[in-house]
Each structure stands twice: as C-alpha cells, then as structure tokens.
C-alpha cells in the first residue's frame, strides 16, 4: 500500500484476500460473532412491549437496557485479560456458552427478574465476543487487511440494524416473543462449538499475572451507576448517580494504569500516548453518537407521527451510511487515511449539531441527512482507527490492547447515553413528550452530546499528528 497516494483507493489487499491463506473459517467466525452481538442488542427494540405485557414488567424497561449495558462494558473490558488467562479458544467457547445460558434464561423467564438476569448474561457474553473478535482480527490477519476487515465487520451491524427490529417485530406480532431468544440460544451454541473447531488449540493462555479484581469491581460499580442514571427520571438523583459513576470510572482507570497487570495495555500509560488518544476517539465518538438511536425514534414518533418500526428505519440511515462508506473507502492510501481519521469525527460533530435542531420538528429529509452525516463519519474513520490502534501495540500487548477497543466503546456508549438522558429529562422528557416539548428535548439531548464530538475531533488530530514510531513502523511493514 503506497504511503503517498492521493487517490482514495490503492491496489492494496483485495476483498477476496480476507478469506485467503486459510483465513476463511476465522472470517466466518468473526462475522457470526458480530451478528450475535449486534442482533441480540438490537432485536429488543420492537420486542420489549410484548415482553413487558407478558411479564407485567413495563416499569422495568429501562433496567433491562442498563443491566445489558453493564454486562457488556465490564466483560468487554476484561476480554483481553480473559484471553491471556485461559486462551483465546477457551475464552471464545466460554462466551458462546454464557450467551447460550443468557438467551435460555430470557426465553424461559417466568418473571421480569429472570428476564433481566438473562440480559445481564447476554450483555456479558456479548462484551466478551466483541472484545475477542478484535483479538482474532489483530492476531490472524495482516495489518494491511484490517481496514477492509473492519469495514466488513461493521457491515454486519448495518444488516443487524435493519433486520434486528424486523425479526423482533415478526415474533412479537406472532405472539411468541420467547422464540427470538430460543433462536439466539441456538446460534450462540453454534458459535461456541465452532470456536472449538476453528481456533487452534495452541492459542492457550500464557499470562499468569494477578486478577485485576479492584479495577473490575470499580468498573462494574461505575457502569452500573452511570447506566442507572440514564434510567431514573428524578433529575437530582440521576445526577448524583452519574457523578458518582464518573468518579468510580476515573478511579477504575487510575487503578488499572498503576497495576502491572491491568486491563489496558502498558503503552497507554503515557500522557502523550497516541494509543491513549486513539482510545479517546473511540470513547468520545461513541458517546456523541448514541443519542440518535436512544432518542431519535421517540422524537420522530412525537413530531412526525411515525410508527415505532418506521421511526426505527429512519434512524437506520446512520447504519446504512456507516456500512456503505466504510466498504467504499476501506482501500484508501495512507494520505487519505489521515484525512478520513480527522474528517470522520468532524462529520460526526456536524451530524450531532444538526440533530439538535431537526429532531425537534424538522423535515424527514433533514433528519435522514443528519443520520447520513453521522453514519458517514463513523464509516470514514473507524476502519483506519482500528488499524492504527493495532499497529501501536507491541506483540506482548496485542491481545489486551485490541480487546480493549470493545470496552472503551462500551464505556463511551454508557456515559454518552447517561449524559443525553440527564439533559433530556431536565428539559421535560421525563414528564411526557409532545410536539411542543420536543424541540427543547432534542436541543438538550443532542446539545449535551456535542462536547464529546468536539473531544473526538481534538483526539483524532492528536492521533494523526503524533510521532508514533511504532505505529508508523507497523503500517510501513504491513504495506
């Protein structure tokens, strides 16, 4: 891959090269894992009303999301450590088993408590799967192929965004919401068995450092507190939970950075570390973009009178743009990669700013355009950001550092959702949404997300400008 080509594409690795060299089974495993995580996270969008009616649990809607998210973030953060401890093969098989158990618990749940417990298991398994698939990408594929691999993996999320709510709606309309979880339990079991066949037995753990108990406990309390802040409608209580959660998150990060066997790689410890800046881009972009999926459908129903499914598909414009752009530019040369790395967050900033205005009562065209801007931003920067992160990691840090991407993104989503929820509730969302109150709610929720978008632009500039000798050497070797 040329380092000076001004063209958006180069004669680098082709799409079919991803499956070459005996990598086809691993590629299939990555895509299946991404499908399980994405579909399981998205299918409940149209399914929860049926679950609530069946289990008399409407009051617990928000807690199902909070429980799922807490499990996802904590497990995602520990995926690298788990892989080093028990081996990639065993860790992936374990994640498939836990996901199967979680889906079975929700499928057979006699009440909302069991259903939420099942969602915790599903979230934890999803976090592990997400983190471990990054490990497979980093260890089994050449770095030059990573942008195309990231683009292909992201396309699975695009498909799940379109099909997940539809699948949930079909089962809900048929009066058998439990069938979705039986279906996903079977898929999860297949994934777990496939890992035993596809991941080499030699990929066993060699790390025997201490268990990062302190960091994990603090992280669990932090994400649980932050997630609860997004559920509780009383603004003073929610604000207190959020402040406490952020403080606990900071304490977890500091404790982890001081530990010789932490959850994060050692190279992130330096204040000027380009790896730290890259993780910041992941955190901040996820935090900035989460409000669209969180409040977009509800605002569209209130202002434009759309059905829940129709509103969900309008919001899916983001996923369509994300997938299309990522695939289209994944072969870009390094000069264009640097442009996209900064241009992506800039487009996310523009999309969020536009949503603060149009989601409160703008036209359908304007809403779709804002979603396209947001999705284009993610699709433009994420394929190359992931490649940069993995190029910055030493051989000893590859497992932990690549898996950490999932935990960082999950934490960003939790914090961003809590901030947007606090702002929306303070603007009157908790007391009811109407065409009259929608403009203020949209301005508050999306306006509160703008600082994250600005942070992501600044962090992306640091990634591009940093004199990351290790990253440059890795990218040059890959070319």
Automatic annotation (TrEMBL):
Membrane spanning residue stretches: 26-48, 60-82, 91-109, 115-137, 149-168, 180-199, 211-232, 238-257, 277-296, 308-328, 340-358, 364-385, 406-428, 440-461
SUPFAM superfamilies the UniProt entry points to: MFS general substrate transporter
Domain Major facilitator superfamily (MFS) profile: 26-471
UniProt-listed PROSITE patterns: MFS
Pfam families given in the database record: MFS_1
Entry's localization field: Membrane
This protein's UniProt keywords: Membrane, Transmembrane, Transmembrane helix
Its membrane topology: Multi-pass membrane protein
Top-level taxon in the UniProt lineage: Bacteria
Record's protein name: MFS transporter
Lineage: Bacteria, Pseudomonadati, Pseudomonadota, Alphaproteobacteria, Sphingomonadales
């Amino acid at each position: 891959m040329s380092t000076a080509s001004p063209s958006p594409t180069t004669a680098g690795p082709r799409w079919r090269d991803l499956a070459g060299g005996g990598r086809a089974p691993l590629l299939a495993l990555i895509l299946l894992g991404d499908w399980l995580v994405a579909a399981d996270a998205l299918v409940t969008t149209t399914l929860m009303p049926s679950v609530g009616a069946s289990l008399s649990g409407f009051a617990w809607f928000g807690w199902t999301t909070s429980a799922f998210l807490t499990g996802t973030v904590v497990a995602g953060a520990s995926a690298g450590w788990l892989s080093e401890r028990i081996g990639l093969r065993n860790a992936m098989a374990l994640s498939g088993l836990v996901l199967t158990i979680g889906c079975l618990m929700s499928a057979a749940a006699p009440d909302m408590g069991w259903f939420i417990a099942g969602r915790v298991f599903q979230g934890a398994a999803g976090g592990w799967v997400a983190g471990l698939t990054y490990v497979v990408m980093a260890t089994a594929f050449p770095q030059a192929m990573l942008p195309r691999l990231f683009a292909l993996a992201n396309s699975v999320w695009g498909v799940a965004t379109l099909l997940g709510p539809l699948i949930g709606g079909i089962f809900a309309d048929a009066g058998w919401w439990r069938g979705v979880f039986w279906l996903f339990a079977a898929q999860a079991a297949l994934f777990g068995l496939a890992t035993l066949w596809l991941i080499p037995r030699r990929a066993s753990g060699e790390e025997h450092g201490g268990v990062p108990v302190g960091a994990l406990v603090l992280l669990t309390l932090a994400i649980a507190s932050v997630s609860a802040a997004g559920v509780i409608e009383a603004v003073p209580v929610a604000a207190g939970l959020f402040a406490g959660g952020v403080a606990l998150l900071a304490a977890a990060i500091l404790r982890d950075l001081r530990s010789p066997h932490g959850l994060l790689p050692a190279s992130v410890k330096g204040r000027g570390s380009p790896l730290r800046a890259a993780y910041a881009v992941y955190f901040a972009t996820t935090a900035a973009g989460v409000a669209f999926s969180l409040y977009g459908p509800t605002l569209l129903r209130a202002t434009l009178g759309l059905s829940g499914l129709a509103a969900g598909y309008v919001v899916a414009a983001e996923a369509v743009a994300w997938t299309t752009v990522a695939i289209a530019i994944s072969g870009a040369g390094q000069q264009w990669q640097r442009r996209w790395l900064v241009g992506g967050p800039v487009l996310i900033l523009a999309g969020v700013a536009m949503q603060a205005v149009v989601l409160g009562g703008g036209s359908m065209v304007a809403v779709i355009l804002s979603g396209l801007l947001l999705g284009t931003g993610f699709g433009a920067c994420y394929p190359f950001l992931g490649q940069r992160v993995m190029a910055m990691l030493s051989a000893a840090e590859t497992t932990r550092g690549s898996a950490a991407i999932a935990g960082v993104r999950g934490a960003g989503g939790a914090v961003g959702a809590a901030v947007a929820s606090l702002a929306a509730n303070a603007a009157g969302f908790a007391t009811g949404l109407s065409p009259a109150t929608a403009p203020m709610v949209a301005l508050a929720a999306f306006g509160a997300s703008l600082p994250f978008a600005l942070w992501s632009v600044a962090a992306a500039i640091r990634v591009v400008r940093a004199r990351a000798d290790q990253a440059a050497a890795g990218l040059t070797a890959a070319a």
